[in-house]
Amino acid sequence: QVQLVESGGGLVQPGGSLRLSCAASGSIGIIFSMAWYHQAPGKQRELVASITRSSTTNYADSVKGRFTISRDNAKNTVYLQMNNLKPEDTAVYYCNLKRRSTPWARTLDDYWGQGTQVTVSS
Questions:
Q1: CA–CA gap between residue 6 and residue 122 (Å, rounded)
Q2: Residues 6+ apart with CB under 8 A from 99
Q3: 116 vs 97: CA distance, rounded Å
Q4: How far apart are CA 6 and CA 76, in angstroms?
Q5: DSSP bridge pairs for 11
Q6: Residue 1 confidence class, pLDDT cut points 50, 70, 90
Q7: Which residues contact 41 (CB under 8 A, 6 or more apart)?
């Protein structure tokens, strides 16, 4: 099993910054990608940003130029630096990890963190 522990959420004013962290532990295997999703009340969970093992990144259009995803492979940790935050960024942010349990596994296993609340408000 894989455990994901998120930290760094909180209350911030519009225009402010936050940095989220997600540390993976347990039987991690081979990480394919790590990502951040968010879910606002009454809405579906949406991809915010992802990063592959080779450090290829992908961002939602709404956060391009404001958010940066990065990872520390040695620590099995992914970060999300969020700058110029807007009220519409308010949501629960979830860490996601996709991995292969063995080098020859044909499928990817999916794991989620418990979520961390980000609230952007004056």
A1: 24
A2: 2, 28, 29, 30, 31, 32, 108, 109, 111
A3: 16
A4: 12
A5: 119
A6: confident
A7: none
**Residues 31, 25: contact at Cβ < 8 Å?**
no
3-state secondary structure 15-55: CCCEEEEEEEEECCCEEEEEEEEEECCCCCCEEEEEEECCC
Pairing of strands 77-82, 91-100: unpaired
pLDDT digits (tens, 9 = 90+) for 12-60: 999 999 999 999 999 888 989 999 999 999 999 999 999 998 899 999 9
Cα–Cα distance, 25 to 47 (Å, whole number): 22
Cα 28 from Cα 4, distance rounded (Å): 10
CA 9/CA 80 separation, integer angstroms? 11
SS3 27: coil
At 50-109, the pLDDT tens digits run 999 889 999 999 999 999 999 998 899 999 999 999 999 999 999 999 999 998 999 999
CA separation for the pair 8, 51 (Å, rounded): 19
